[in-house]
Amino acid sequence: xxxxxxxxxxxxxxxxxxxxxxxxxxxxxxxxxxxxxxxxxxxxxxxxxxxxxxxxxxxxxxxxxxxxxxxxxxxxxxxxxxxxxxxxxxxxxxxxxxxxxxxxxxxxxxxxxxxxxxxxxxxxxxxxxxxxxxxxxxxxxxxxxxxxxxxxxxxxxxxxxxxxxxxxxxxxxxxxxxxxxxxxxxxxxxxxxxxxxxxxxxxxxxxxxxxxxxxxxxxxxxxxxxxxxxxxxxxxxxxxxxxxxxxxxxxxxxxxxxxxxxxxxxxxxxxxxxxxxxxxxxxxxxxxxxxxxxxxxxxxxxxxxxxxxxxxxxxxxxxxxxxxxxxxxxxxxxxxxxxxxxxxxxxxxx
Length: 350
Fold this sequence. Notes:
- The chain contains 12 helices and 14 strands.
- The strands form 3 sheets. The chain has a 7-stranded parallel sheet with strand order 8-9-7-6-12-13-14, sandwiched between helices.
- Helix 10 crosses helix 11 (320-326).
- The chain is 35% helix and 21% strand.
């Protein structure tokens, strides 16, 4: 966007937050805060008049809550939205819902010493708004109430014995992982997932996926044996790794230094799977900003594992899959709707 500023509209019912967000975002020469609305009804008019590139959206507001407004936006005028959410348990659950509905990302909204705390997250806020402006956002219609995802059935020749699946994702990953995990059959191979996400949010995310899936989804714990039909999600601020003892695989958690700028890091997960599962593994890299996971996926491929990448047309942000593809780490690139079937087919081929 050389020469052209990214137009941002802030939607928040707190005058103080509107003022602080405006000051924070305006401090970057590439961003232009074109307006600040106190509620979705005012925001609706401002969107029509100002045509912003990115919206920052509060969740709890008068007249219409942020989730209802987001649903309308994604249906009627899809645009990149960054949620500004409190780091509470309730905030985490609602944020997960927002990300599933198409919000690009979120930033934690401070509740104490707001001015000082917002200064601390200013760089994160600016980076996420800039990244959101490049995201591929598509219109979406709400599924009919009560419609369950159509689960896959593996068919003859399917064998998940000894196979380990490792999946890495970041921006756009909440929605992408939901599309993959909720259609897997209950006898799927064990799956370990690293999704870039802060503490508190990973537990809510695991519980949400578990409620929608035939497989059992949990936040990973240290030193737990992995079983087929189970999905283990790296907790926020902990690296998740795979280890082997005799004939059994088990999880390990650590708080070693961030890798590729992240903890949990996809590279850390993939490297451990390459080392301990080797050719018995399938590595999958999904939507996300940056290049975390590319080096680890290449290592998995080099030891005989099979590798899958999400394609550009279905990635909200085609950063991580692209980095892995350019490195020659991806054997097959498929749309997000085909990832689950591709995993099961590769279990058959083995």
